[in-house]
Amino acid sequence: MQLPGERGRSPNGARPDRSLTVDWRRREVLRGAGAAGLALGLGACGDARPAVGLPPAGARPSLVPMRLTLDQLIDVKCCIRPLRAAGPNLSAERLGDTLVIHNYGHGGSGWSLSWGSAEIAVGKAMSTLPREVAVIGCGIIGLTTAVVAQRAGLRVTIYARELIQRTRSFRASGSFTPDSRVALAEPAGPAFGDLWEKMARLSWKAFRTYLGQPGNPVEFGDSYAVSESPITRRHWPRDPAITGSWKPGGLPQQNSEFGHYNDRIKDIMRQPVDLAPEENPFALPYAQRSSQMYFNFASYGHALLSEFFAMGGHFINREFHEPAELAGLPEKVVIHCTGYAARDFWRDDTIIPVRGQTGWLVPQDDAHYAVRHHNLSVHSKRDGIVVMNNLDPSGQDIGEMLGVGDSMELPDRGPIEAALKTLQPLFGRGGRS
Amino acid sequence: MNARLALLGAMLALVAAGGRAATESPAAGTAQGVYSAAQADAGAQVYAGRCAVCHGADLSGTWEIPALRGRFVGNWGRTPLAKLYDYLGHAMPQFAPGTLEPPDNVAVIAFLLRENGAPAGGRPLPADRAALERIVLDPVTPH
Ligand SMILES: Cc1cc2nc3c(=O)[nH]c(=O)nc-3n(C[C@H](O)[C@H](O)[C@H](O)COP(=O)(O)OP(=O)(O)OC[C@H]3O[C@@H](n4cnc5c(N)ncnc54)[C@H](O)[C@@H]3O)c2cc1C
C-alpha cells in the first residue's frame, strides 16, 4: 500500500513513518495511559480505540493518491458567475397584471444559497395567495425555487430554455461556498449580511437532508490545504495604489471590495486545523484539514428533478425574448431565475460577469477528498475530480478579481493542464505519471 | 345525457357559489386598515419579548421554525383573524402556551399584519373573537 506522503518531508527533514496508522495506535496507548489515566483508565484497557489521547478527531492519515495525469482529463467547462454588486436581486415588480419576483444574480454562490434564496422568493409569492406560479429558468436557482414552491403547496410550471443539466449551474465546481463573489461589501451594505446569513443557514440545513440519499447528492469530505510555508488565512487589505472602486455599471477594482460573510456562520463552517508533521501525508511540509460540504451534480440534479415531477410539476421548454412576454403567461405570479442571462433578458447591466472554468478527470471512487495548493485545487467527487486553476495567466494569485468583467465563456485547457502538473507531485510517488 | 351533465354542472356550480358566499360573509379584510399604528408598536414589544427568540427578530424563521412573513400570509390568507387569534392564544409562545393575554394577542397580530404589508387604520383591532371572525387576512403585494 502506497501512501501519498511516502516521499514527503516533514519540516525537520525526517522521513514520515511509512505506516502512519500503526504509528498512531502506539501513541494512543502511551498518551491514553499517561495523560488521562484518570479517565477511568480507558486508555490502558488494551482496546485499540481508547477514549483519550487520540490523534485529532477525523484525521485520515492514509489517503489514496489522486490520479492527476493528463490522460485522465475528460472535460473542461467554462461558466460565468452572475455577480451583482448589491447581491442577488430578490425584488418584486409588477408587469401589467403579473407579479414578477426576481431570484437571480448569486455570483459564485448560487448552489450554496439556493434553498435560502428560494425560500425568500417563494415567501414573497405566497403572500399574494396564488394557487400556481411560473418559474423562469431551470438552473440550480430555478429548480430549487420550483421545488420549494411545490412544498409550499403551489402548482408549478417551469419555463426554461434548458433543464438543469445543460445550464451554467452544471458548470460550477459544486461546493458549499456561500460567500464566494456574492456581493461587494459597500454597495451591498450591512443589511445584506443579515440576509445572507439567513440564506446560508437555511440552505445548509436543507442540504443536510440529502446526506446519505441514494447516489449521494450531497456529501462531506476532507479538504486539505498544503504549502511549503505555514498556512495562514489570506487577507486582501485595500491597496491604496488603486484609487478607483466599483461604480454603478462598472467593475470592482480590487479584492478588498468583495463582501465576506463566512465568519457569521463559523459555528457550522468550521475553521481548518493544522496537521502535525507526522499526520501530513503530502509532499510539502505544511498541511491543514477542514471539512467541506459538496454536491454531486448528476445525482443532485436527478433528485431535484425527480421531486419536481413527482409533485406534479410541469416543464415547458421555452425561450423568452423580452420581459413583456412574461405577462402573457397563464400564471400571474412569476419567479424569474435566469441567472447570468438576466443581464440581457431583463436588461440588468448591474450583473458583472466573472468567468471561471473547471477541468474534470475520470471519477476516482477510492479517493474522495480535496487538495488545494496556492489557489490550484483538485476535488475528487463522485461525478469526477474537479480541477481548478485560480491563478491569473501570469501565475499570480489575484484572488476574487480573477475573471471579473470577462464574459469569454469558452474553456481553455492550458491552465487546467498546468494545475495538474503542479499538483501531481504533491501526492508523492502515487501521483507520478 | 349532455343536458343532464350540464344540469349537474350547474347545480354543482350553485353549491360551490353558495359555499363561497358562506365563507366570504366576513365584512372586512386586512387590506382595509383594521389595526392602529400604536397597537402594532405595542405588538412589536410583545413580539420582541416573547416571539423573536424563535421566529427571529426579522420574522424570517429558520429551517425548523415557520417564518411569520411571506409564507405566513399563504398559510393564514383568506382566513378569519379569529383563527389566528385562537391559535396564538392556545399555542404561542410555544414555551408557554396559553399565556398570551388577549390584548397582547391582538397587539401581536397587529404587528404581524404591519410586517406583512397590511396598512394601519384608525382603530385598534379589538380583542373580541366575534369581531375577529368577520375580518379575513387579505393577500398583499410584495416588493
Ligand atoms: C467555475 C465556477 C464555479 C462555481 N462553483 C460554485 C460552487 O462551488 N458553489 C456554488 O454555490 N456556486 C458556484 N458557482 C456559481 C453558480 O454556478 C451560479 O451562481 C449558479 O449556477 C447560478 O444559477 P442560476 O440557476 O441562477 O443560473 P443558470 O444555471 O444560468 O440557469 C439559468 C436558467 O435560465 C434559463 N434561461 C436563461 N435565459 C432564458 C430565456 N431568455 N428564456 C428562457 N429560459 C432562459 C436557462 O436555460 C437556465 O435554465 C460557480 C460558478 C462558476 C463559473
Kindly state the percentage of residues in helix of chain B. 40-55%
The CATH topology of chain B corresponds to Cytochrome Bc1 Complex, Chain D, domain 2
Bound molecules: flavin-adenine dinucleotide
Most extensive interface: A-B, 24 and 23 residues
Shape verdict of chain A: globular
Question: Whole-number average pLDDT of chain A?
Answer: 87
Radius of gyration of chain B from the CA trace?
18 Å
Q: Overall pLDDT of chain B, averaged?
A: 86
CATH class of the largest domain in chain A: Alpha Beta
Q: Can you name the CATH architecture of chain B?
A: Orthogonal Bundle
Question: Could you give the order of strands across the largest sheet of chain A?
Answer: 1-11-14-13-12-6-8-7
Computed structural class of chain B: mainly alpha
In DSSP terms (H or I, runs of 4 or more residues), the helix count of chain B works out at: 7
Summarize the main sheet of chain A: 8 strands, mixed
CATH topology of the largest domain in chain A: Rossmann fold
Biggest beta-sheet profile of chain B:
2 strands, parallel
Number of strands of chain A: 14
Backbone CA Rg of chain A: 24 Å
CA-based shape of chain B = globular
Q: What is the count of structural domains of chain A?
A: 2
List the main descriptive attributes of the protein structure presented here.
heterodimer; A: 433 residues; alpha/beta; Rossmann fold; 2 domains; 8-stranded mixed β-sheet; 6-stranded mixed β-sheet; 7 helices; globular; disordered N terminus; disordered C terminus; B: 143 residues; mainly alpha; Cytochrome Bc1 Complex, Chain D, domain 2; two-stranded parallel sheet; binds flavin-adenine dinucleotide
